[in-house]
Amino acid sequence: MHAVDGVTLEVEKGSIQGLIGPNGAGKTTLVNVITGYVPFQAGKAWLEDDQLTGLPAHRIAGLGVARTFQNIRLFKDLSAVENVIVGMHSRRRDDTLAQLGTLPFFRRDQRARFNEAHRLMETAGLDPGEVGKRAAGTLPYGDQRRLEIARALALQPRLLILDEPAAGMNPSEKQGIRELIERLNKDGLTILLIDHDMQLVMGVCDRVAVLNFGRKIADGTPEQVSTNAAVIKAYLGTGSERQASSAPGATGVEAVAAEEAQAKAGSKPAAEPANSILDVHELSVSYGSVNAVRAASLRVAAGEVVALIGANGAGKTTILSALSGLIRPASGTAVFDGLDLTTAKASAIVRHGLVHVPEGREILGRQTVLENLELATWARRDRAAAATQIAAVMRRFPILGERRRMRAGTLSGGEAQMLAIARGLLGKPRLLLLDEPSLGLAPQMVDEVFAAIKEIHDDGTTILLVEQNALRALAIADRAYVLETGRILLTGSGDDLLHNPAVRRAYLGG
Amino acid sequence: MGQQILNAIFIGSIYALFAVGYTLVFGVLDILNLAHSAVFTLGAAVTYTLVVNHGQSFWLACVVGILVAALMGLVIEYVCLRPLRRRRAPPIAALISTIGLALIIIAAIEQGRPGTLFAWLWVDGANPVTMPPGTFPNPTWHVAGLTLEGSKLAVIPISVVLMLVLGYVMRFTQVGRALRAVAENPRAARLMGIDVDRMIALTLIISSALGGLAGILFGVALGDISPYIGRDSVEVRGLAVIVLGGMGSIPGAVLGGYLLGLIEVLAVVLLGSNVRAGVAFAALFLMLVLRPQGFFGAQLREKV
Amino acid sequence: MRRLRLGSVLVAAIIAAACGSAGGGGTNGNSYAGKTIKLGAVLSITGAGGVYGPQSRDGMNLAVEQINKAGGVNGAQISLIVADDASLQAQSAQVAQTMIQSDQDLALLGPTLSNSAVAVHPLAENQKIPILAVSTTGINIVPNCNFPSTVACRYVFRDSLGEETAIPDNIQSYASDAHPATGVLLVAQDDKFSSDGGKIVQATVSKYNINLLKTISFGKNEADLSPYVTTAVGLHPDVIFITSLGGIPAKIMIEARKQGWQGQFLGGNGFNTATVSKNAGAAGMGARSASAWYLGNSFPSNAEFVTAFKTAYGHDPDQFAAQGYTGINVIADAAKRANLTFSDLAGDRDKLRAAMETVNIQSPLGPFQFTSTHDVKQTVWVIKMDGAGGFTLVHEIKPS
Amino acid sequence: MDFFIQLFSDPVAFWQSHTLLVSQIGINSILASSMFVVLYSGQLSLAAPGFMAIGAYTSVLMDLNLHTPLAVDFAAGTALAGVVGALVGLPVLRLRGVFLAIATIGFIEALSLGVILNLPITGEGLGLRNIDADPVGGVYIVLISLAVAVFLLWRLTKGRLGYAWTAIRQDELAARSQGIDVARYKLIAFVISALLAGYAGAAESHLYFILDPNEYGVPRTVQVLTFAVLGGSGNVLGPVVGALFLTTFPFVFKQAGDYIGVVSGAVLIAIIIFRPQGIVGRGGFAVVRPRWWPHPQLRAPSTG
């Protein structure tokens, strides 16, 4: 299977090139290939007239290709300044002997480096005086992103690759990043920008390339791309023409407020059920200094399908993880059918009938499909029933029946997703948490997955669905919550939200 | 030569039995449990003390010895490992804490003399002792120039059967699957309702019980029980074995055990002198440089 | 230990009072009343030498208590500190250094193993403090402790029977009894005591035209000796010579008997302790070695020593206990005649050294004197294991 | 306690009566520092005793046979250790974590098999008698070289090299993205560590009248690792503190008597559990640091 397949991409010197595409489209893989983390299978890459093909990562960096990472990779225990100084490595003369002698010019250089580091942090919009001495890992999320950029700038790169610099940021932070990018570009830096936030990408990029399933499906000015039907299809999923006509436009930030109002007006007050099986109240979760979920409240009644939608980093997955006991919330309550989820052990939660099918499936690649299924019945006491259900499941997903003796690691993405869902079912759930079940799947697979979900629901299982294919999710959802940067932005019935522009904004940025 | 092959198979079984427990813990936790060889010694010591100083029957003593070893497994988990897991400490910290426990166990046995704190555990100090003859049936046959000694012969089927059972459990039972799940992806395991902590505790119990049993078999069959049998016979060799077989691989550990036994005896027969322990390591060193994943270590990549 | 010690004190008191032997009752004019003579013993309580060390310690403690109860050395009480060197060379040296420098001891005893002696004795010589070896029997212990340098060490003495005497005597006595034709030598190569023994065996056998078929060496930390024994037994020798330490001889005997070998075991000082005889059990029956001491020997002071020891510790003493006991008495006697000042340590150490050269006392080892090379001249007892943890006498060889 | 009483009441007498202890602390500190270098660059190498042996035997043999001045002996021993370090490092450094650890153990054992135990010139396992040893006077050399070593390391960790090492230790991937040649800097660290160990070996060999082969085995490497990890391997001072603490421990707690082993084992566990990052390091000395003291950069415990 090809993560990236025959992609040609030219970045014009001094320009900002955008690279977009739905999750799993292969954007990050492409970057990893360019920067030498993943070996080329075929093809070549040049930076101006330097060959990059086949060089080790550190050489490529030395040639002036700086990058940031999608999941921030700072040296967490070094201070912010030190992080930036590490970035100067490749263009810094080897001063080992000088240090040993603590020669004066070493001290001078050291001071010079500190000053430069401070300058770079200022460029990246950090206040060195304030954050300079703090350990990088303890900085707020936004600052960590900026620091990573400052560190990248320390290489004095010819090309700067930003991998989702704005992920999980709130509008004002995003605005800051946008200005930063534009400023860097004005100083003549060439930038390759990867981000989910259309509004950002469309706003700053001179040209935008679109990847889907490892292939380039469009390349051109933001206008051309944003009106390209293939792109819209790739993004909002395989909906009917009606949705396709409402293209993801580059609505300016100034429009945000207006849309906010429009959204509130457009959506009826959330018709939350009185008697709920799951009741989450003011739930807040934070990773260190990052507040991933801020006082989110939601309820699910028995028999419902409730969708939880929102852009990347909005906190959807975090909420699910908190519910299934993988992480402990900072505050708030979450009760499932009398069981306090904020304190119960993960194993107890499963036994109580709340089963979480995680993002990225997390199937056990080293065990066979059958073993995966049998293990899924771990929490159950009714062995016989479990056995029959395994058979039933394999009938429902014939592909699993065929492959039962194969190592799960060899399954394709779609098959793996089926396995993950089947595993969830075998846990005998009364409430099933599905996280991004269609992630990176081909359209026909997506159809199958949703068919399966519908079936499961018809069998009377309550479902809380996190899905970035909003149209598909809303289509089968009784109700939905729209999440933005850890907050519940609005809620309402599926149909209602389908037509709500705020949803589009939540997805395509703002 | 035939006799030498027997020697090799015998000591190989001991190595294998010991290493299986060793590698099991590494496979599940990615941690080297350096207290394992101390548990080996403890098993033998407890059994001897029960028989000789407390006049218990040999068979009862063996059972208790294994139980004590298993219990020590729990101690390792609750004292050395779990607190560090809770604090997300690096694996190297666990290395140190298990060293500490090993130190305690060995010192306790070493200092056990009449009238000391640990007299209940051991009274012979640093002295090596042997099971008094007659405490257990030990028929010896002389067949075709070979000496077949009951206690040594018994070791072979016992360890083979146990290792087969363990292999079966790991491969075909729900618990085995759960253990492998914890080893591969604890997060996924938790999502399936598996209590990871309990599984880890179970791992250490099994591992330590096997280690203790290996110690008992070694001490009884070789007529050598002392505070140092663990250190001298298996502590470092155990590492060699589990690497030869590929870290975390049970069949690998078994094969590695027998292989090491064979290499060593051949070294004695062919090269003479005291190159025994060294030869194995020369081989090990080469193999790590040439084929780091060992024979069965397909999963090395994930492990590192 | 404590409990036993208390018991022993009383008994020791009675005995010492009854017959003021073993260094008791001052004959010398000068008085050390109120002073303390600090001695340090470096012994292997744990590790390979743990088989011997505790015996020496018990013997020493017994002697100290008897002497102190009997009024001490010209009124001075002896305080003995025993430190464990875990049978490791480096640790041995560190322990000794602490005793010399920080404890400010007058003299040292030990260490248990020849392997450690090569680390400790040169140190003592270098620091000019008398040291009395009570169990080290390897080659070049005395007088040339700085081997290969041939300068005789002035501060190093020994009251234990060197393998250079023990092994040849043993072989000779057995050869004259049984005229064996072939032998195999099993030696722990990486231990000084053992490998020295091995060298001596190799040098001696030809004298009694025994054909040494093979020398099989192994590491002293080997746990499983079966392969070596199998090789040895495979050669069907009349004699198996074992020169090694601690539990090893017993393990070899057991394994060899199991494999159906019927010949004779010969060895050295490594055999001469109860533990070895006990562990070997029936397998060890008849195994011969030459010893510096024998439980039933007829020397007057031996009987007292044995009774006192049994009352104190509840079991028979062995060669190492006897040598340790003698060692303390030797130093006590020297100290008595040395006119110590108790103010100038270096001077006292020299005086003691000089006095030790002229020691002449009755001891469980017999009438005790040092040779000009600071070695011991004494009766040698060829003994064999009785298969039940004890030894029986074969020959008594008077000093030539 | 009288240990401290003397230390403070009569330092002169204390110094005179503990010179060998002090030198041993010095040696152990240098060894710990050599362990520190590799840990600091994110590698768990246990080869130190091997390089010690090289340094020790080389210097003593030169001293005894060629009668070259001490300085030359030391230099030769150290240099040879460095060269061997480079040769061993090249193939071995591909390995990570436990595998590197075990490969380096293999190196130690292979070395003792090939060189220490079976060559006439090295005494065939009986060790070498070094009649020129100076147990008391050696202390000054040791302390001076320790000071120098620590100072140099401290400088190194502050400069380009140190930043590279820290980057590698914390996140190899990110380090590469900053243009750091991971393989190269790992090797540099490995060789420096070899040099330090070699020097320590040479120095130690001139404190004792005997080179004890047993000092260059696995137990020693475990001991040194414990120094470094317990002291805190994120800071140059950590390993020195660790060595100081653990080396003096038995002297300080004389009243533990025979139970010293048990006690120190318990202490080991306690410390590592409550301070997984080591005694020195985050929140370690910060606790006792006076207000006017300059605030240190935060450093991570090495995960080896």
Written description of the protein model:
The complex is a heterotetramer of chains A (510), B (304), C (400) and D (304). Chain A is of the alpha/beta class. Helices cover 41% and strands 19% of the residues of chain A. Chain A contains 23 helices and 18 strands. In chain A, helix 8 links the parallel strand 5 and strand 6. The model of chain A is unreliable at 239-261 and 263-269 (pLDDT under 50). By secondary structure, chain B is an all-alpha fold. Chain B has one domain: Orthogonal Bundle (ABC transporter involved in vitamin B12 uptake, BtuC). Chain B contains 12 helices and 2 strands. A two-stranded antiparallel sheet of chain B has the order 1-2. Chain B is globular and about 60 Å long. Residues 298-304 of chain B have low confidence and may be disordered. Chain C folds into 2 domains: 2-161 and 295-369, Response regulator (Rossmann fold, 3-Layer(aba) Sandwich), CATH 3.40.50; 163-291 and 382-397, 3-Layer(aba) Sandwich (Rossmann fold), CATH 3.40.50. Chain C is 41% helix and 18% strand. In chain C, the strands form 3 sheets. In chain C, strands 7-6-8-9-10-13-14 form a 7-stranded mixed sheet, with helices on both faces. In chain C, strand 9 (264-267), helix 9 (274-280) and strand 10 (288-291) form a beta-alpha-beta unit. In chain C, helix 1 crosses helix 2 (53-69), helix 1 runs antiparallel to helix 10 (300-313) and helix 2 (53-69) crosses helix 11 (319-337). Chain D is mainly α and 304 residues long. Chain D has one domain: ABC transporter involved in vitamin B12 uptake, BtuC (Orthogonal Bundle), CATH 1.10.3470. Chain D is 68% helix and 1% strand. Chain D is built from 13 helices and 2 strands. Classes of the chains: A alpha/beta (510), B mainly alpha (304), C alpha/beta (400), D mainly alpha (304). The A-D interface holds A 35-37, 56-59, 61-62, 66-67, 69, 73-79, 82, 85-87, 89-90, 92, 94-96, 98-100, 102, 106, 133, 135, 151, 154-155 and D 152, 155-156, 158-161, 163-164, 166-167, 170-171, 173-182, 234, 295, 297-300.
